[in-house]
Design a protein that fits this description.
alpha/beta, TIM Barrel, two-stranded parallel ribbon, 10 helices, globular, Peptidoglycan/xylan/chitin deacetylase (PgdA/CDA1 family), NODB_dom, Glyco_hydro/deAcase_b/a-brl, Polysacc_deacetylase_ArnD
Length: about 240
C-alpha cells in the first residue's frame, strides 16, 4: 500500500510540474497564494451574511505573551483560535493546557515552523502528526485545522492535508502587514477591513509583538462596535463555503 501511495505521489508531482508552465502559473505565486492550492480545501474567509469573524494567533506558546493574550481574551469574553508551533508547545505544555482550558481552539502550525515548500511527504507527515499529538496532550478535543508556517505551501503539504481530510486555513485580514508596531493603527485597520466571514491573522506571543498585545483590547472593542461577534475558526467554517 505504501508503494502505491509513493507511486501516486510521483505521478501527481510530475503532472503538476508539467502543468505549471502550461497554466501560466509561477511557482512563487502558488507558494504565496492565500486562496489557491493544488490539493484539498483551503479557506481564507467564509461566504456568509452573518457578521462574525475569526480571530487567530500564530506561533508560540511562550511565557509572557501567552498569558497576556489569554487575560485580554478572558476580559472581553472572546474565543480565538491559536495556531501553535509544536516545538514551543513541547517546551511549554502548561501554556497549551491554559489555552485549551480557557475554551479556545487550537490549530496546527507545524512542529518546526519551517516553510513547507520544497519538502518531502515524510517530512510533512512528521511535522503535522507530531504537533497533533502535542495538541491532544493539552486536553483540547476539537477539530484541528492547519495553517502553513509563513503561509507557504506548494505540493507535499496540501497533498498530505487533502489525503487526511484536513483544512488549510489562511486569512483575509492582516493588520500587522500594514502597521506592525503601532497599536492604534493595528486596531483601526482590523476594524475597518473585516467583513462577514473574515479570518484575522495576528502574532502576539513573542517579545517583539508588544504592539499586537497592546492593540488587542481596542481591536476587539472596535470590531464589536461594528456589530460583529467572534467565533473559532471551526465554527466559522460551518457557516458557509470558502470565500476567495
Amino acid at each position: 500500500m505504501r508503494r502505491v501511495r509513493v507511486r501516486r505521489w510521483v505521478v501527481v508531482v510530475a503532472a503538476v510540474v508539467v502543468a505549471l508552465p502550461l497554466a501560466g502559473l509561477g511557482v512563487l505565486e502558488v507558494v504565496n497564494a492565500r486562496g489557491f492550492q493544488f490539493f484539498g480545501g483551503l479557506t481564507r474567509a467564509v461566504a456568509t451574511d452573518e457578521r462574525v469573524v475569526a480571530l487567530t494567533f500564530d506561533d508560540g506558546p511562550v511565557p509572557g505573551g501567552a498569558e497576556e493574550l489569554l487575560a485580554v481574551l478572558a476580559e472581553k469574553d472572546v474565543k480565538a483560535t491559536f495556531y501553535l508551533v509544536g516545538r514551543d508547545l513541547e517546551a511549554h505544555p502548561e501554556l497549551g493546557r491554559a489555552i485549551a482550558s480557557a475554551g479556545h481552539e487550537i490549530g496546527n502550525h507545524s512542529y518546526s515552523h519551517q516553510r513547507m515548500v520544497f519538502v518531502t511527504p515524510g517530512f510533512v507527515a512528521d511535522e503535522v502528526e507530531r504537533t497533533d499529538r502535542l495538541i491532544r496532550e493539552t486536553g483540547y478535543a476539537g477539530a484541528i485545522t492547519f495553517r502553513p508556517p509563513h503561509g507557504k505551501k506548494l505540493l507535499a503539504l496540501p497533498h498530505y492535508l487533502s489525503e487526511h481530510g484536513r483544512t488549510t486555513v489562511m486569512w483575509d485580514v492582516e493588520p500587522e502587514a500594514e502597521a506592525d508596531d503601532d497599536a492604534e493603527a493595528l486596531a483601526r485597520h482590523t476594524a475597518e477591513h473585516v467583513a462577514p466571514g473574515s479570518i484575522v491573522l495576528l502574532h502576539g506571543m513573542y517579545e517583539s509583538r508588544a504592539a499586537t498585545r497592546e492593540a488587542l483590547g481596542s481591536l476587539i472593542d472596535r470590531v464589536h462596535a461594528r456589530g460583529y461577534r467572534f467565533a473559532a475558526v471551526s465554527d466559522l467554517l460551518r457557516l458557509g463555503p470558502a470565500r476567495g
